[in-house]
Structures are given as structure tokens and as C-alpha cells.
Amino acid sequence: MPTETGTGFTEPAGAGYARQDITQASFTTSTGGSAIQLVTPASDVVFGPASGNWGTIRYVGLFDTTGALLAWDQIAADQVVNTGGTVRIAGANLSITLD
What we know:
It is a single chain. This protein is mainly β. The protein has one domain. It is 0% helix and 41% strand. A three-stranded antiparallel beta sheet has the order 1-2-7, with no helix packed on it. A two-stranded antiparallel ribbon has the order 3-6. It has a two-stranded antiparallel sheet with strand order 4-5. It starts with 26 loop residues before the first strand and ends with a strand.
């Protein structure tokens, strides 16, 4: 299980996997009460297709460009990714609240 320091994450080692760059410009934001800001990617985040087996995906993490963990969550159901498979996170399902 991942920790707040970023340990416990195992990235897929199979061919075809790459971290996805989500730039600030690709987010939509909305502000709630007391300056709480909800940040959501404008489009889906897609990993793959896998050109080798990645194993079982259980968690997702958001890291900055230095590798520091910003946020993480467990996915609703473990996902086994074999050759040809993809992992898609709907942009609407990936929201971060900043306060």
C-alpha cells in the first residue's frame, strides 16, 4: 500500500508503459466556498496500450516533476493489464481539491 511519502508504489515494468504528463494548462478549475479549488483534467488520462503484461494495477498516484507524491488513491477495482490493454482514467473521475 502506498504511503504519504510516495513509497509503496510499483510502476508497471512492462513495455508500452509511460508516465502521463498532465500540465497545468490541461486542467479545469472551479472555486467553492472559502477559496477551495477543485482541479479536474479536461480530458481522460490514458496509459498504454501495453506491449507486454503490466500485472495488476491497484493504485494511482499524482507526482510532480521531481518525483514527489502529491496525491494517491486506490482504484475501485483491481485491473489486470495484459498485452494490448490500456488503463483509462476518466478526466471527470480524477479531481483534486486544493484548500
